[in-house]
Amino acid sequence: PCRSGPVPPVPAILTLSVLGTAGTGAMDRDRLDAFFDSEVGRAALSRAGDAATVRVVQTGLEGEAYFLHVRDTAPMPGGAVAPDAWRAVLPLSGRLVALTALSPADPEVPPATLRSVLDAFVARMQAANGAPPAADG
How far is CA 33 from the centre of its chain? Predict the structure, then answer.
């Protein structure tokens, strides 16, 4: 059957964290990959601050945005979430920020759908802050 009308919203949880002042150089994928592969980097991604709960599934650099597909088995304070999440780290208005798309535990949103939600979140934040949009790179 053919659907018409608006598509229902995806029940994703979106967060934005300010990490600090953005540097003047371009995002360096090799350096970011090395950091997030380290114990300190995985601990920074963990909801519990524990590197053992996190596995980085995939990374990529698109324009000024560094994307990570992360699997975190630590519980989230305040509610049950699925282990898979997508994050983007990028400069906005002179600050380095992290944007995250999480799924509630039920109903669980597939990782590919979470990535689409995160892409839209990144694009809206870049547009609102006068930043160039992410491009395939």
Answer: 14
pLDDT digits (tens, 9 = 90+) for 39-52: 999 999 999 999 99
Beta strand 81-92 with 65-72 is: antiparallel
Q: Report the predicted TM-score, pTM, of the whole model to 2 decimal places.
A: 0.84
Q: Return the HEC string of 26-64.
A: CCCHHHHHHHHHCHHHHHHHCCCCCHHHEEEEEEEEECC
Annotate 64-113 with DSSP letters as a single string: TEEEEEEEE-SPPTTS-EEEEEEEEEEEETTEEEEEEEEEESSSPPPHHH
> At 114, is the pLDDT very low, low, confident or very high (cuts 50, 70, 90)?
very high
CA distance 28 to 8: 37
Q: How confident is the model at residue 135 (pLDDT cuts 50, 70, 90)?
A: low
- pLDDT digit string (tens) for 68-84? 999 999 988 777 899 99
Residues ≥6 apart with Cβ < 8 Å to 20? 95, 96
Residue 134 · residue 115 · CB < 8 Å: no
